[in-house]
């Protein structure tokens, strides 16, 4: 427990250092603290898959951190500035975009993310999909005026397309959530240049909904679609709530997840980027398909065929308070959208 507390505190410390720093070296230090804190949490199960996942994660994050340090050092060499907001040299901007894309798992640097989520526990996967994405996203927000809009737009559209396409034939829920994360990152990045506030709103709502789904899966110990099918017989109320949360993550209108997609398409249209808005909206239909399949599996009353996994009849029937609050927020926040929009 002491070790777990230390790693959790280090995660918070690393995130705080990065998002509050003004100097590139401090930002890099925060990212390194984060990486070192999450590695023991990934590998704590001592399973070969977990060890492999932590090794892959370390190699990818170390490479990305080195690139980030190199981009900031080259910018300082050319301009004499170590300030995060003063990243002006074009080569440094491209290098930084590459480094942050690698840290986030954007296409074409997405290959590591599904594998690592598959090798981690559900709660560690939640940390990797939400908290670990926050510091790099903040660094992108701080440097957004200097970044190349065309490069970001291409990477964003590719992420939405690949996230939807690759999630179609998955049976492991953690991999589906990984491709869902890649797809949502595309939505965040496409609007980054034009409205950084919208990127943050999208990130918050995505984190909220993903947390609700992971907490639900953790309470029922569900890792595969075949296990998800027998969930209705154990906790029907939670299965119905999970269906709504999944549809919210897909972005269907009466639910919370519709808000960021609606605002992003509206903003892109205002910027006269109608083709881009249409493309990203159509590509998100791919993701909608596998969210609907998950929702269907969550609410099915009888599995269509016999399964080979162990039946988990004796499970915890109670739903904890945190899961209830997260599910409620991730499905019913849409009426509060005028309040969210008036935040300066």
UniProtKB/TrEMBL annotation:
One of its GO terms (biological process) is mitochondrial electron transport, NADH to ubiquinone. It is found in: Mitochondrion inner membrane. One of its GO terms (molecular function) is NADH dehydrogenase (ubiquinone) activity. InterPro entries: Complex_I_Subunit_2, NADH_DH_su2_C, NADH_UbQ_OxRdtase_chain2, ND/Mrp_TM. Its main location: mitochondrion. It catalyses: a ubiquinone + NADH + 5 H(+)(in) = a ubiquinol + NAD(+) + 4 H(+)(out). It is an enzyme of class 7 (translocase). Belongs to the complex I subunit 2 family. The chain crosses the membrane at residues 57-77, 89-113, 150-169, 176-194, 200-217, 238-259, 279-302, 322-343. It comes from the Eukaryota. Residues 288-341 form the NADH dehydrogenase subunit 2 C-terminal domain. Its EC number is 7.1.1.2. It is a multi-pass membrane protein. PANTHER family: NADH-UBIQUINONE OXIDOREDUCTASE CHAIN 2. Keywords: Electron transport, Membrane, Mitochondrion, Mitochondrion inner membrane, NAD, Respiratory chain, Translocase, Transmembrane, Transmembrane helix, Transport, Ubiquinone. This is NADH-ubiquinone oxidoreductase chain 2. GO terms for cellular component: mitochondrial inner membrane. The keyword Lipid metabolism does not apply. Residues 21-286 form the NADH:quinone oxidoreductase/Mrp antiporter transmembrane domain. It holds the Pfam family Proton_antipo_M. Core subunit of the mitochondrial membrane respiratory chain NADH dehydrogenase (Complex I) which catalyzes electron transfer from NADH through the respiratory chain, using ubiquinone as an electron acceptor. Essential for the catalytic activity and assembly of complex I.
């Amino acid at each position: 427990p002491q070790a777990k507390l230390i790693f959790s505190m280090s995660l918070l410390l690393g995130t705080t250092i990065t998002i509050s720093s003004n100097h590139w070296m401090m930002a890099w230090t925060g990212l390194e603290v984060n990486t070192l804190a999450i590695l023991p949490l990934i590998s704590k199960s001592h399973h070969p898959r977990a060890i492999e996942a932590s090794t892959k994660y370390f190699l990818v994050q170390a490479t990305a951190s080195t690139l980030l340090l190199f981009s900031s050092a080259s910018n300082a060499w050319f301009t004499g500035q170590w300030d995060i907001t003063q990243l002006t040299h074009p080569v440094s901007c491209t290098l930084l975009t590459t480094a942050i894309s690698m840290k986030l798992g954007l296409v074409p640097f997405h290959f590591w993310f599904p594998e690592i989520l598959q090798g981690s526990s559900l709660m560690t996967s939640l940390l990797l999909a939400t908290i670990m994405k926050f510091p790099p996203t903040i660094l992108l927000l701080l440097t957004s005026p200097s970044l190349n809009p065309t490069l970001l737009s291409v990477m964003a559209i590719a992420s939405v397309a690949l996230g939807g396409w690759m999630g179609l034939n998955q049976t492991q829920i953690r991999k589906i959530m990984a491709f869902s994360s890649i797809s949502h990152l595309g939505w965040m990045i496409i609007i980054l240049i034009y409205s950084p506030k919208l990127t943050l709103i999208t990130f918050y709502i995505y984190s909220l909904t993903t947390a609700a789904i992971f907490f639900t899966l953790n309470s029922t110990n569900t890792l595969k679609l075949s296990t998800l099918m027998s969930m209705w017989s154990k906790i029907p109320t939670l299965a119905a709530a999970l269906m709504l949360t999944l549809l919210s993550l897909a972005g269907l209108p009466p639910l919370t997840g519709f808000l960021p997609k609606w605002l992003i398409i509206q903003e892109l249209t205002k910027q006269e980027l109608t083709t881009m808005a249409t493309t990203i909206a159509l590509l998100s239909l791919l993701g909608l398909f596998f969210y609907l399949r998950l929702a269907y599996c969550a609410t099915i009353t009888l599995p269509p065929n016999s399964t080979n996994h162990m039946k988990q009849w004796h499970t915890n029937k109670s739903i904890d308070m945190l899961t209830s609050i997260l599910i409620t927020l991730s499905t019913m926040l849409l009426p509060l959208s005028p309040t969210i929009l008036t935040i300066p």
